[in-house]
């Protein structure tokens, strides 16, 4: 700071504390609601301190499911979310590191064309072409499969651009040096480029894992069986009964479970996540 | 920028590109072109026969009062969310940019809503403001405010706006903070030596230097409001009450899935594509011009 005024810091702390409060309060309420019994939550006078039903609520949400509707237990949905988020993150990293390697380290006819074909995908999110994409997935018999949940969501250029940017900063001398050592394209990729890319890969992994975990519209469309749902789509189904019948304490336990993995990833991998985010968007 | 040292493989580069190109063609170009093609067709209810009808789907679409209503809803919704989340995030970012000991801790606490799924954010806010059991709905009622987002369209809109803003603050905060930290301290010190107070320095020095970040965020936020808020709207209001929260993307979904009108839904997709492409193009032009000096 240029000049030091004591009240300046006080105001900053006050505003930031208010900010954290706003950001945290909805989640705090969900946590609290997931520890009470149904009557306390629905009664409209839920206390702001934890109740005693925590273990029972989470046990029921994960392993048993709701009592009033034939709903899948959340444990299974969590696994679906994990598989599709991992699939999206890993799949995207593999296809985009390979294509970026081709575009940056090789000269071949149609190189520019190939790059633009990939680049254009940045413009249209899957939401704009949902029904035609749905039809393609249905024709390929991929409804209710992990492939159907994963593949359409990795068809975009963000990863390719990120790796391309990174490869551009790798000094040419490294390639020359490994050439002198007699390394071909495979050895250079495996022994030199891949180890250098570890942080970029990790950053992209964090962002894509969260992106995949938080998908809603796409899984909603292509899963017809309850057993193939993800936890994010499952949570809404818990509330689609009439209001008084919805088991809010279980829905809130589910919300907490649905938030936990991606939030943990962001908090623990903060540095990588921020770096990757700022770099992909530019 | 080009590499000076490269490999001269003949087949290998194509093999490296194949996985991404196949996925891009099958799941991007093919469906996107199908969306355009379908928007010129009329299909019967079972999808067995279709005939080419030219622009009739578009004519029907633009003759629909509901479509204009959805456009207006989208406009109101995206303006509110973008303006609110940008200004709130900027306020927090300027505070976190001050030399505070606890700034990193606050930063961690501010960014994690990024990781919360929009649909989950919607459910959290719905729970907080649920007309009969919401913890924050009670004080509203107690103050004599007849709060009911389930029946009142304006209340429903306020609720989805709040959830969408809450979800987006962390993202804007990160980019504003990065932007603020890239402003050289010497520029601000020079302002202080010239006798400008903190407020004046902010509006005449810092804010103009942040304008590329702000513009970038504006475009990203509008695209976010268009698409990512689908989960919030579907989980909280289902487009209701009486279409009050039906945005253009929600209408594509509703008309295609619930109404079975694939031609009309495809025409709407094409209109959306044009809007998003235009936004992206504007952003690229603007960003490129910024890069030149």
Précis, in short:
Chain A: Pfam families: BPD_transp_1 (PF00528). The complex is a heterodimer of chains A (282) and B (293). By secondary structure, chain A is an all-alpha fold.
Explain this structure to me?
- Chain A has helices spanning about 5-35, 40, 55-65, 75-105, 110-120, 130-140, 145-150, 160-170, 170-180, 185-195, 200-215, 215-220, 230-235, 250-270, 270-280.
- Chain A is an all-alpha fold.
- Chain A starts with 5 loop residues before the first helix and ends with a helix.
- Chain A has 15 helices and no strands.
- The model of chain A has no long low-confidence stretch (mean pLDDT about 85).
- By secondary structure, chain B is an all-alpha fold.
- Chain B has twelve helices and two strands, in the order H-E-E-H-H-H-H-H-H-H-H-H-H-H.
- Chain B has helices at about 10-40, 55-60, 65-95, 105-110, 120-130, 135-140, 155-180, 185-195, 200-225, 230-235, 250-260, 260-290, and strands at about 40-45, 50.
- In chain B, helix 5 crosses helix 7.
- The longest helix of chain B has about 30 residues, at about 65-95.
- The model of chain B has no long low-confidence stretch (mean pLDDT about 85).
- The chains are: A mainly alpha (about 280), B mainly alpha (about 290).
- Chains A and B meet through helix 1, helix 4, helix 5, helix 6 and helix 9 of A and helix 1, helix 3, helix 4, helix 5 and helix 7 of B.
């Amino acid at each position: 700071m240029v000049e030091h005024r004591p009240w300046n810091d006080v105001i900053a702390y006050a505003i930031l504390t208010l900010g954290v409060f706003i950001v945290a309060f909805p989640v705090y309420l969900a946590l609290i609601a997931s520890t009470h019994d149904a009557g306390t939550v629905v009664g409209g006078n839920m206390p702001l301190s934890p109740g005693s039903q925590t273990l029972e609520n989470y046990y029921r949400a994960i392993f048993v499911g709701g009592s009033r509707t034939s709903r899948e237990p959340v444990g299974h949905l969590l696994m679906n979310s994990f598989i599709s988020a991992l699939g999206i993150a890993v799949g995207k990293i593999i296809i985009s590191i390979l294509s970026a390697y081709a575009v940056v380290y090789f000269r071949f006819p149609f190189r520019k064309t190939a790059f633009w074909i990939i680049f254009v995908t940045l413009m249209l999110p899957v939401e704009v072409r949902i029904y035609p994409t749905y039809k393609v997935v249905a024709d390929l018999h991929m409804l209710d499969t992990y492939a159907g949940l994963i593949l359409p969501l990795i068809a975009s250029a963000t990863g390719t651009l990120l790796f391309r940017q990174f490869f551009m900063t790798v000094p040419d001398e490294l390639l020359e040096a490994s050439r002198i050592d007699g390394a071909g394209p495979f050895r250079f990729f495996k022994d030199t480029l891949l180890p250098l890319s570890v942080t970029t890969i990790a950053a992209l992994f964090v962002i894509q894992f969260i992106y995949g975990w938080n998908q809603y519209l796409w899984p909603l469309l292509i899963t017809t069986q309850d057993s193939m749902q993800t936890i994010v789509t499952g949570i809404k189904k818990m509330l689609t009964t009439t209001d008084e019948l919805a088991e809010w304490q279980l829905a809130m336990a589910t919300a907490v479970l649905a938030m936990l993995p991606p939030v943990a990833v962001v908090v623990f991998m903060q540095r990588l996540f921020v770096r990757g985010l700022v770099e992909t968007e530019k | 920028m080009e590499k000076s040292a490269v490999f001269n493989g003949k087949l290998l580069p194509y093999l490296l590109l194949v996985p991404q190109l196949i996925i891009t063609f099958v799941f991007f170009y093919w469906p996107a072109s199908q969306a355009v093609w379908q928007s010129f067709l009329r299909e019967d209810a079972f999808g067995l026969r279709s005939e080419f009808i030219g622009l009739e789907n578009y004519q029907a679409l633009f003759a629909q009062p509901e479509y204009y209503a959805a456009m207006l809803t989208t406009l109101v919704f995206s303006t509110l969310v973008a303006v609110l989340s940008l200004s709130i995030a900027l306020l927090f970012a300027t505070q976190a940019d001050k030399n505070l000991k606890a700034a990193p801790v606050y930063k961690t606490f501010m960014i994690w809503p990024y990781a919360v799924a929009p649909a989950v954010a919607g459910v959290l806010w719905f729970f907080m403001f649920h007309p009969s059991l919401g913890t924050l709905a009670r004080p509203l009622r107690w103050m004599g405010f007849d709060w009911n987002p389930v029946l009142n369209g304006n209340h429903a809109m306020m609720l989805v706006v709040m959830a969408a803003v809450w979800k987006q603050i962390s993202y804007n905060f990160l980019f504003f903070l990065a932007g603020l930290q890239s402003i050289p301290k010497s520029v601000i010190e020079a302002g202080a030596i010239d006798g400008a107070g903190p407020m004046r320095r902010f509006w005449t020095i810092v804010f103009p230097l942040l304008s590329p970040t702000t513009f970038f965020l504006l475009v990203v936020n509008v695209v976010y409001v268009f698409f990512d808020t689908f989960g919030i709207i579907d989980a909280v209001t289902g487009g209701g009450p009486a279409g009050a929260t039906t945005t253009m993307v929600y209408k594509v979904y509703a008309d295609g899935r619930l109404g079975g009108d694939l031609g009309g839904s495809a025409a709407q997709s094409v209109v959306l594509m044009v809007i998003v492409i235009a936004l992206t193009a504007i952003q690229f032009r603007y960003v490129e011009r910024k890069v030149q000096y």
